[in-house]
From TrEMBL:
Pfam families: STAS_2 (PF13466). InterPro entries: MlaB-like_STAS, STAS_dom, STAS_dom_sf. Signal peptide: none annotated. This is STAS domain-containing protein. Residues 1-104 form the STAS domain. It comes from Plastorhodobacter daqingensis.
Amino acid sequence: MANIMLSGDLGIKDAAGLIRKLNEALMLADVTVETRDVRSADSAVAQVLVAAFRSAGMMGRSLCVTLPPEAALSQLLRRLGLVGEGGPLIVAEGRIIGIEEGTV
């Protein structure tokens, strides 16, 4: 299992690096992404994470993203309608563990 720690203010400027980091890790192992130290994030980060879940599935890997309820990323994903009632991301025990088939 590979662990990726995200922190600070993440936005479109970080998207390419995050894509690279996630893809490299997923080629080698299942991946857990820790997000508790993310202070802010924008929709580009959300798009990267959604795409990473799709990539993980195609590679036969699992991806897990921690999602503390008070964290900035959690709030962003709720505002975007990606988590919560009707959202396509599957959340269990404070972690995003997958994406509903046929969504996003």
